[in-house]
Transmembrane ascorbate-dependent reductase CYB561 (Neopipo cinnamomea), 251 residues
Amino acid sequence: SMDRAPPPASPAGLSAFVAVSQLLGLTLLATTGAWLGRYRGGVAWHSPLQFNAHPLCMVLGMVFLQGDALLVYRVFRHEAKRSTKALHALLHGLALVIALVGIIAVFESHRAKGIPDMYSLHSWCGMAAFVLYLLQWLLGCGFFLFPGASFSLRGRYKPQHIFFGIALLVLSIASCLLGITEMLLFKISDSYSHFVPEGVLANTLGVMLVAFGLVVGYVVTREEWKRPPLAEELALSMDFKTLTEGESPGG
């Protein structure tokens, strides 16, 4: 694997789409911060502003980092599979930790203000996304990262892992859209219909969330952009897992 032939170039268009996804992702975070800072008083933990940590953490963890974790196998096409796999799991794990902080923020904020929990469609979809995401991460680590699972078992589970990876990003973005709408109706219901700046900014954030999901989804599902197995992987003829590789090498 140390032959110093230059690695093949990335497929045409892949780098551009990945760059657009990152630009959208960073803009998402900046727009969320601008909304919370300009119109909602900012973010602080032990204060009435604790709730605002919730949307920020959810956009960062359940959308941006989750999306980037899906892109790992497209971006790091020529690195060792084990390293790419570890980075994929690490990004998902970091997303889970940040999302957990966001969930704690909303429950503590509700408790402090006497607001009931888990009654809205947003909260049901959001909690489902988080619990399924945690389960997906645990199963992924168990099947693919740690030794033990047989190759045939990995091969049978891989299509489910890939499907739920994409489905969970969709569910997470849908939950964010529901949350944005709910927050606007709670905070500015009397002026929302008059195209006030806060409403327009939050709606724009929603459109960008959809755009981020579409770009990531396109990159991840484009067949010719899948990560090719490295020479040593073909030689070993094992290691079925990735979010993106085609059929198991050497079948």
About this structure: Helices lie at 14-39, 53-75, 81-113, 121-145, 151-188, 197-221, 231-236. Residues 9 and 77 are 10 Å apart (CA to CA).
